[in-house]
């Protein structure tokens, strides 16, 4: 869909168009989820609702942190320039139109551009590093206590950014964003893990979508309160960034009331009675025996298949094709250009000639939320551009957005699955960082045709998915493995499997 975005200078020249884009995404996604959840209300206990809501606060914080850096870009760049001694009093007055050229030059100074790009991209570095630790943290003291422990990172990050004026703002913000990224890398794994384990089997998919919904709602909230007449101004922008840690405080207050995952208690710790008690808290008065029997079968199956280490998975020919597909799917998500929109849409719309680009950014946020739940010379080009944005963000949220996360678990059995998820998460965050760090320079290079690069990449990924990614619906892992080996029913290399089973690395 990036092909629709080529005429960037034509892109949504009226504020109305930009606002409509965002509203569509938010509304459609919300409507889809609301319809699904209405059928669940009667069967969800109060404890389960509180537990899912509490966990989803971590995803909300992830989304807020993802989008908060976008709207106040101009204000933050000005403060960076001031801190670096590049903005004199005369140039600051240019904000009112007295010397617009000089003010723009200070904001476009190489040092300011570098620090601004790093402020955006360092978030992904933190997530990339911590993505390897999700399983360790989740298993160390449990899912609930794991989320509680990592909230310390979110509070520290919020304080660093909220108090950035006490020292050098660019250093404080970059440090805070790095810590927040480390937190988000952990919570983006812990939240869906916990929700998936406590949700009733029949509604696991529906409740699992709350993770994605909370993320896009967080993005939208950050864009709304990032408006200049709310918090996105010269006086309040540190508070805007500092609020990134606010959901962690609320979550910390609620987590003690949430039961631990029954699957963690039974499968990993072998505590049957505690698992039984947790099930009754989550589901009310009922006989938990069938659920416990299912967990026993899962535990027995997991005990038969030792965990495969990350290094063993990388060098294994048994899982090479599956791993290649999983990594390519995650690359297609990030190299679609979607996060370039989330990180830099304010600058993109400003370059396209939009008078109030922050409103256009909010529009993109609303469009994004909706579908999770479900040339200058020609005036008609604005409608073509509007349709292009609708299609791009909408199709992302029903395709490249959620599917890469789902498919990794379907391609790998219990043994190699944790290592595969860690590698996929690292790949996702790494490519996220590359886009965040390089997009400003690519935009200078390609100007209004910046999205042609993403269009070419998406075309390549489309061909790859068509030719190499199998349909996994209704198939067992053995059947999927047979598809990759191109010889249905062919047994795996016993020697290599034996070697993999001897590996006990995390």
TrEMBL record:
Residues 51-473 form the Major facilitator superfamily (MFS) profile domain. InterPro entries: GLUT, MFS_dom, MFS_sugar_transport-like, MFS_trans_sf, Sugar/inositol_transpt, Sugar_transporter_CS. It holds the Pfam family Sugar_tr. It catalyses: D-fructose(out) = D-fructose(in). SUPFAM superfamilies: MFS general substrate transporter. Belongs to the major facilitator superfamily. Sugar transporter (TC 2.A.1.1) family. Glucose transporter subfamily. This is Solute carrier family 2, facilitated glucose transporter member 5. It comes from Nothobranchius furzeri. The lineage of its organism: Eukaryota, Metazoa, Chordata, Craniata, Vertebrata. The gene is SLC2A2.
């Amino acid at each position: 869909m990036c092909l629709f975005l080529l005429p960037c200078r034509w892109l949504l020249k009226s504020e109305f168009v930009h606002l409509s884009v965002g509203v569509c995404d938010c509304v459609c996604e919300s409507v889809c989820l609301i319809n699904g959840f209405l059928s669940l209300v009667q069967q969800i206990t109060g404890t389960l609702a509180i537990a899912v809501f509490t966990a989803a606060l971590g995803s909300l914080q992830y989304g807020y942190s993802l989008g908060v850096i976008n709207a106040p870009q101009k204000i933050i760049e000005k403060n960076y320039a001031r801190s670096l001694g590049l903005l004199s009093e005369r140039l600051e007055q240019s904000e009112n139109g007295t010397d617009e050229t000089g003010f723009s030059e200070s904001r476009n100074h190489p040092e300011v551009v570098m620090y601004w790009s790093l402020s955006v991209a360092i978030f992904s570095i933190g997530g990339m590093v911590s993505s390897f630790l999700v399983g360790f943290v989740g298993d160390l003291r449990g899912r609930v206590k794991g989320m509680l422990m990592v909230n310390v990172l979110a509070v520290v990050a919020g304080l660093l950014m909220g108090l950035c004026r006490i020292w050098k703002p660019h250093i404080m913000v970059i440090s805070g964003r790095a810590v927040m990224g480390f937190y988000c890398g952990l919570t983006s794994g812990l939240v869906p893990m916990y929700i998936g384990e406590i949700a009733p089997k029949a509604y696991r998919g529906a409740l699992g979508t709350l993770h994605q919904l909370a993320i896009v709602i967080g993005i939208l909230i950050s864009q709304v309160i990032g408006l200049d007449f709310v918090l996105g101004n010269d006086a309040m922008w540190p508070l805007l960034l500092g609020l990134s840690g606010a959901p962690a405080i609320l979550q910390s207050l609620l987590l003690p009331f949430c039961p631990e995952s029954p699957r963690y208690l039974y499968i990993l710790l072998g505590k049957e009675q505690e698992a039984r008690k947790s099930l009754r808290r989550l589901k009310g008065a009922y006989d938990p025996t069938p659920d416990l029997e299912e967990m026993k079968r899962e535990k027995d199956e997991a005990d038969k298949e030792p965990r495969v280490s990350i290094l063993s998975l990388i060098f294994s020919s048994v899982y090479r094709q599956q791993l290649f597909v999983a990594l390519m799917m995650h690359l297609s998500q990030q190299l679609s250009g979607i996060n370039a929109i989330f990180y830099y849409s304010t600058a993109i719309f400003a370059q396209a000639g939009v008078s109030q680009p922050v409103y256009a950014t909010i529009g993109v946020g609303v469009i994004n939320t909706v579908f999770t739940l479900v040339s200058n010379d020609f005036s008609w080009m604005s409608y073509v551009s509007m349709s292009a944005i609708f299609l791009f963000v909408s199709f992302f949220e029903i395709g490249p957005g959620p599917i890469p996360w789902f498919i990794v678990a379907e391609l790998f059995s219990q043994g190699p699955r944790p290592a595969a998820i860690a590698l996929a998460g690292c790949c996702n965050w790494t490519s996220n960082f590359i886009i965040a760090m390089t997009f400003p320079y690519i935009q200078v290079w390609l100007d209004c045709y910046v999205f042609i690069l993403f269009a070419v990449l998406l075309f390549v990924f489309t061909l790859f998915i068509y030719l190499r990614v199998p349909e996994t619906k209704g198939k067992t892992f053995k059947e999927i493995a047979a598809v990759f080996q191109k010889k249905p029913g062919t047994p795996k290399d016993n020697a290599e499997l034996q070697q993999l089973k001897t590996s006990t690395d995390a």
